[in-house]
Design goal:
Length: 312
């Protein structure tokens, strides 16, 4: 197996901030609202580069050695099918929805199922996810017209270590004060149903997609709750599996076994670690190839935590 660090791709967003620098030492552009860092992505407009080799994720995916890098369970798709981001939401995001696979083509978009893992939250941080029990489509449309649609959403307070699974069709928004690791299908399709009547960087209201949103919203999706992890497993779905590995004692050791079935994306969410003899700080993202072997992991802090992503 081989371990590669990943070169992040920063995205300016009106709701972003500077927390990726403050928390993780990232070299983000100063005095700019950086809302997203694309950690692992294979899209025409953005392709992750592996620092040590200089190769892009797409070059590995398109190579004859795909199974060597991504494992025997890698699907036969034109692009690497998972997109992983860090989000710094210092203002609330739009109320939005992503299209289900059955509706995406007619909406001229790509389907997106995703999950959020909360890394840091302010005392007042919250999210909007799904509908309040009993909200109907006519009620939702009436609230849209009266600019009160946020009242239709189910609201949850957030805390570090919580996770929310968001299947396509679930209306949602991230509230202010959340720093999140997001794992999703490789899609950049978002339909905004409401954007709090604010303007974008150009002083104009950002585009809304009300008709597409209404077509895609699951109006039977009421009051979803945070994910309930089973042992190390946080979430698994048909697109990805996300695990959490906790180290509750200083200098605690552990092993991560690579079977050959799949790659690992590894994110250091708490503490610092020595992995196979090399030290890595909090906020580091690593790509670990699928060649069989065992990684020796040692926590270098009182408490440590790793998040890993691989195939389901």
């Amino acid at each position: 197996m081989a371990i590669f660090t990943l070169q992040p791709i920063f995205q300016q967003r009106i709701w972003g901030g500077q927390n990726l620098k403050t928390l993780f030492g990232r070299d983000v552009p100063p005095d700019q609202p950086i809302g997203e860092s694309w950690e692992l992505v294979d899209r025409p407009e953005a392709r992750t580069r592996l620092v040590e080799s200089g190769q892009t994720l797409h070059e590995l995916w398109a190579s004859a050695d795909r199974a060597k890098f991504f494992g025997t369970a890698a699907p036969d798709t034109p692009q690497f099918p998972i997109l992983i981001k860090l989000l710094d939401a210092q203002d609330k995001l739009s109320l939005q929805v992503h299209p289900p696979a059955a509706l995406a083509p007619q909406c001229n978009g790509d389907p997106k199922t995703e999950m959020w893992y909360f890394l840091e939250t302010s005392p007042s941080a919250k999210i909007y996810a799904g509908l309040k029990p009993g909200v109907t489509r006519p009620q939702f449309e009436h609230a849209l017209a009266s600019h009160t649609v946020a009242d239709c959403f189910h609201v949850l307070k957030t805390a570090p270590g919580e996770a929310m699974f968001l299947p396509s069709g679930r209306v949602h928004a991230i509230g202010a004060g959340n720093v999140i690791l997001e794992i999703q299908q490789n899609s950049d399709t978002t339909f905004r149903v409401y954007d709090w009547d604010r303007t974008g960087a150009d002083g104009q209201p950002r585009a809304l997609h009300v008709s597409e949103s209404l077509a895609c919203i699951n109006f039977d999706d009421f009051a979803p709750q945070f994910a309930q992890p089973h042992a190390d497993r946080i979430v698994t779905c048909q697109y990805f599996t996300v695990n959490r590995h906790r180290f509750d004692e200083p200098r605690q050791n552990g092993d991560l076994t690579i079977s050959g079935r799949g790659f690992y994306f590894l994110f250091i969410s708490q503490g610092a670690f020595t992995i196979s003899g090399k030290e890595y700080a909090r906020g580091t993202s690593l790509f670990i190839t699928a060649e069989p072997g065992t990684l020796t992991v040692e926590s270098r802090a009182d408490r440590g935590e790793l998040i890993t992503v691989t195939w389901p």
